[in-house]
Design goal:
- This protein is mostly helical.
- The chain has a domain of 62 residues: Winged helix-like DNA-binding domain superfamily/Winged helix DNA-binding domain (Arc Repressor Mutant, subunit A, Orthogonal Bundle), CATH 1.10.10.
- The chain is built from six helices and no strands.
- α3 crosses α5 and α3 crosses α6.
- It starts with 5 loop residues before the first helix and ends in a 9-residue tail after the last helix.
Length: 96
């Protein structure tokens, strides 16, 4: 397998590492940093397999993270999770 550059592993610009938990609903505060990273990559259009390769996880683990995020945000789909997370300020919009 070809070597990947470090820039490929960089977090998407839309990922907000530090958010103030006290400004979000309780369930949103339960979302981990890794789950937010996965969600930010979903927003960039990446598949679970792609996200897994970027973050050094299995695609199945990424799917589990996304499922957990959906549960915490009270939504059913990946797209709904991205929209809800953006509404709450957990991730920002797509970078130009």
């Amino acid at each position: 397998m070809a070597s990947q550059s470090n820039s490929f592993r960089d977090e998407p610009r839309s990922f907000r590492q530090h958010f103030e938990a006290e400004h979000h609903p309780f369930s949103a505060r339960l979302i981990t940093e890794r789950q937010l990273q996965c969600l930010a990559w979903v927003q960039e259009g990446k598949s679970a397999t792609d996200i897994g390769a970027i973050l050094g996880l299995s695609g199945r683990t990424v799917e589990k993270h996304i499922i957990k995020v959906c549960g915490h945000l009270g939504v059913k789909t990946r797209v709904q999770a991205v929209v809800r997370a953006r509404e709450l300020g957990l991730i920002t919009g797509h970078a130009p």
